[in-house]
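Q: Predict the bound structure with acetyl coenzyme *A.
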Amino acid sequence: MSMQSSSIIIRGLGSYIPKKQLSNDDLAKIVDTSDEWIQTRTGIKTRHIASMEENPSDMGTQAAETAIKNAGLNKKDIDLLVVATMTPDLPFPSTACITQAKLGLRTIPAFDISAACSGFLYVLDTVYHLLRSGPYKNALVIGAEKMSSTLDWQDRTTCVLFGDAAGAAVLSKVDTPNVGILGSTLGADGTDPSILHMPAGGAACPASAESIEKRQHYLRMNGREVFRLAVRAMEQATRTILDQFDLKPEDIACIIPHQANVRIMQSLGKYLQVPEEKIFINLNKYGNTSAASIPVAITEAHKQGRIHPGDYVILVAFGAGLTWGATLIKWHS
Ligand code: ACO
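A: Predicted complex:
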């Protein structure tokens, strides 16, 4: 890869987790499941559920306040806002526009990206290129999800897997060469959306008495198929981005995968031959929070001292679409 004179760094991080917890035992009172089944098959122990009044824009606003503060910046310094979400507050306007107003930002460009659980990596790559080539210096990026609003609480095969949260980062252009985000690889294969989708509520099937009766406004998933494709897509994406920078899996200090299932993350580690202690996992506390999972995980990994200046860090995700991606970061000092 060629030398760059400037870089895009993650300058500040923040996360927001709703107060209300829903444990596996709580779920066992709603559907025919058990703590033992959920923990063995997924690694999830508990998850947090947003209140009726808490929307993705509210959670994103909280995470962003922390990220801006940790970046040592003021709101007036932010000149671009992009939100990753598959659970927008409203079909339109975008959650980014609603968040811009709640944060009291200037009238900067604000838009959403929809790539499900890979959404935050799609945002990182888009914003990386906008910062490099556009007139922007500091961008606020958010992953915010209220997955609980999409779940069929009568379907034990899906409702035990997800949780609500938001994570945010401030990305800044700096004059130091070759630090921060070094590059990303993204991919998508839309040939079979039904592997993981919500059948109704969009233009193809607007809400009707029939769509509600058929329970079509909930997330539906072929879990086994997603599992199989996820491991393959994440391994390939990681290898692709490492190859681009002449790095090997052993050069990586920390892998932060999308938190969907601990068995998926362990399989990824096995195929890449990366020891388990280098793979960051916090799924046990939050479940799968879709586009929020990676920004929440980086925030925690950073806070826990798992990432040091000069470390190579890989972020890797897959999600509905299907979509996938990996981002390589050289952590700045
Ligand atoms: N409690 C108890 N039993 C259950 C539950 C539950 N919550 N859910 C399913 N079962 C039962 C099934 O009915 C099945 O019973 P049967 O054998 O009598 O038919 C049995 O458990 C086994 O079910 P499987 O689906 O084969 O279980 P599996 O080991 O594959 O685990 C799981 C299912 C956890 C969903 C797994 O396939 C998985 O994690 N897949 C990936 C999902 C994922 O990552 N999704 C997020 C994508 S990201 C995004 O964009 C949102």
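A: The longest strand covers residues 164-174.
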